[in-house]
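Technical note accompanying the year-one report. For the benefit of new consortium partners, we illustrate the data format agreed upon in the data management plan: each record pairs a sequence with a structure-token string. No post-processing was applied to the example shown here.
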Amino acid sequence: MAKIFEYVPYEEYKPVMQRVESCIDKIYDEIAEEINFEWGFVGSANRYGFVFITRRINGNKGFDFDVNFYVKNPNDNEYWMAKFLRNQFYLAIQKVFKKYGYEDPEDRTSVIRVKMVDKKNSKIAHSIDFAIFQDIRNGDGTLTEKYARKYDNGSYSWTTRGGKNDEATEKLEWLNENIGDDGDTDYPYWYAKGSSLLSDMKEEYLKLKNANKDEEKCSFQLFNETINNVYNQWKQYINN
């Protein structure tokens, strides 16, 4: 099987992550007087605490990060308008990231995207997607976390995002609770010396990513398949 994707080395992606963290501190300084928010890396930079950052070998799009902004409501009975928040974050992201050589942000459907372009080699070195979330109260009084989405007609609204998989979460929890790394016999079962759950998952994830023929399949779906495959392999081993 031909290798299409590869993992980005730690020494390459870590400085970019640190720069993003620094930039977000400056974004907070830009808007914190009016808008209070928390944030976190999601996607390939933080899959249940694991890093699975990949890129296409000899590709021209580099690697990417996903960042979620979690905006606090102005008060218990009011919500920020989606268009207002997208505009405020767009302007702050543009002001901060332009100073570090990034292109002007792109106001896309689900995210605000910034790119670092390697102009010498005519390719994207890396990109960062920012999504904005807010808790919206439903008619029954419950809260749902929704993101600010842009539509083709230029309007914005709060929309529920899918992607969570309770079954995959439960299986990963079982693996973490029952499988030891590197011959750790304090667990009911364990990997041999030199092996770990993370290394096993990384190998399986890259195998699935390189074998995938469905361009519509998202990375989080491949990751959920990775969890399922590793879980099933352990269950089969235990049963045998």
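Partners are asked to follow this layout when depositing records. The longest strand covers residues 123-137.
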